[in-house]
Amino acid sequence: MADYLEVEFKGNRRSVYARPEGLELGPGDIVVVQGDSGTAMGRVTIRGRLAEMKAGGSSDTRIIRKASEEDLALQNKIAEREKEAFRVAEERIQQRGLEMKLVDVECDIDTGRLTFFFTAAQRVDFRALVRDLASIFKTRIELRQIGVRDEAKRLSGLGCCGRKFCCSSFLREFEPVTLKMAREQRLSPNPAKISGACGRLMCCLVYERDFYREAGKKLPRVGTKVSVGGQEKTVGKVNLFTGMVDVVSEDGTVEHLPGEEIRGKKERLPRRFFRRRSGGRQARRGTERGETKEGENRSE
Fold first, then answer.
1. What would you report as the CA-atom Rg of the chain, rounded to the nearest whole angstrom?
2. Would you say 44 and 9 are in contact if contact means Cβ atoms under 8 Å apart?
3. Span 165-215, pLDDT tens digits
4. How many Å separate Cα 242 from the centre of its chain?
5. Whole-prediction pTM value?
6. What single DSSP character describes residue 181?
7. What is the pLDDT of residues 26-65, one digit of tens each?
8. Closest CA relative to residue 173, chosen from 77, 54, 60, 74
9. Which residues contact 196 (CB under 8 A, 6 or more apart)?
10. CA 20, 22, 26, 30 torsion: positive or negative?
């Protein structure tokens, strides 16, 4: 049975590989791998069952070897080249007045190609910048525009929870996040409280979405009219975790009751309550259709 390893590369990219037989590797080891775009070096982060689950029965191309002293020296040399390329590119961007923000630089081990990642509010004509960089570094230059979520993933950081960004620690793909998810979880619609460092809605809003949906189906909504002890009351507060509901009577008295009891009462409201509501609906419908007696007299 294959032993799987998760390898992390620059920019917090992760891929799962099958460990070659006879090569002992563990978390923290630097390895040289053969990827789709060429040779790359990364650090082993996970080994075993968890990495196998992430692989889903398949893995990327093979691991070539464990990094040697020469490989580590080359990695340090590449890191210095990337740092210098970043500095020069920033200067050129300012000189040409381009509306773009440089995020990161990657240097390919095999070809020496430099890839510059940037963000911009709109499309940028960077052809002149490419010519400048190519004349300076004498290699192939590639500029790649990314979104703000990808920027946060590459640069990493700490979220409001105090932990490392989800996108840069374990998320492999971004899922759509909507304001509806925040409303379902009874969160404040204030963007400052539900947005991440990237300025978009926090990815963690997706994690507990199913729980809130299922729990919300079992309990009445806030503002719902229910019957408790033969009296009509209003649901003032719902606790999805404890299943308790606060109901408010007309005189302002608050009762703390189990949600199952409230839900059962809700389906057996007094007849007078239905008559009053249904009568109101019928009267409005009749008025809209012109079916009142006065309307019939006028139509005649």
1. 31
2. no
3. 888 888 877 888 888 888 888 888 888 889 988 889 998 889 888 888 888
4. 27
5. 0.69
6. H
7. 888 898 888 766 778 888 888 877 777 776 666 666 888 8
8. 54
9. 152, 159, 160, 165, 202, 203
10. negative
The amino acid at 62: R
CA pair distance 96, 126, nearest whole angstrom: 9
Contact 244, 228 (CB under 8 A): no
Per the CB < 8 A criterion, the answer to whether 121 and 148 are in contact is: no
- The label of the residue with tokens 């507060």 reads 237
Q: How far apart are CA 117 and CA 124, in angstroms?
A: 13
Distance, in Å, from the CA atom of 243 to the CA atom of 35, rounded to the nearest integer, reads 51
List Cα–Cα distances, 266 to 184, 239, 269, 274, in angstroms. Answer: 21, 17, 6, 12
Q: How far is CA 237 from CA 70, 181, 205, 224, 243, in A?
A: 65, 19, 22, 10, 11
Contact indicator for 144, 117 with CB cutoff of 8 Å:
yes
Q: Count of residues for the chain?
A: 300
What pairs with residue 117 in β-bridges?
A: 104, 144
**What's the CATH class of domain 73-146?**
alpha beta
CATH code for the structural domain at 219-269: 2.30.30.60
- Extents of the domains making up the chain: 4-67, 73-146, 153-206, 219-269
Q: How far apart are CA 190 and CA 42, in angstroms?
A: 39
Amino acid of residue 17: Y
Which tokens belong to 151? 């920027």
